[in-house]
């Protein structure tokens, strides 16, 4: 596998948005099954549009650093990070791999790249958040393999 990771550029936007929608289709289906229907519809009335906007915002934010993974010169994944200087912590804000390219170590490579980026900038802690539903299981496995430890947090919702 000839994987190249390079800095995100504005011309990557459409490819990154498209792959993220494909990657999160199963995740959002899993979240919908795990949540009360009214709560899901409240938070995600049009999840593809919301996700597109979220990806575009994260990739364009001056406070974030974003990289894309290319396999055979095609964008197959991306990772966006931010730094919390006051706490010497680097955060993986968003990471996605195209479903057609999953199970090839691309998520692991992007995670390792982000961790090394944090180390090179003198960060002392790395953090990432992900969902606890079945759709996020591959992400949880990737992060655990890289040495991240789960902090048990419970978040409850109720439709009113």
TrEMBL record:
Record-annotated N-acetyltransferase domain positions: 3-160
Species this chain originates from: Herpetosiphon aurantiacus (strain ATCC 23779 / DSM 785 / 114-95)
Alphabetized InterPro entries for the sequence: Acyl_CoA_acyltransferase, Bact_Acetyltransf, GNAT_dom
Organism ancestry: Bacteria, Bacillati, Chloroflexota, Chloroflexia, Herpetosiphonales
Protein name: GCN5-related N-acetyltransferase
Keyword Chaperone applies: no
Keywords on record: Acyltransferase, Transferase
Entry GO MF terms: acyltransferase activity, transferring groups other than amino-acyl groups
Database matches in PROSITE patterns: GNAT
Domain of life per record: Bacteria
Stretches assigned to coiled coil: none
Pfam families found in the cross-reference section: Acetyltransf_1
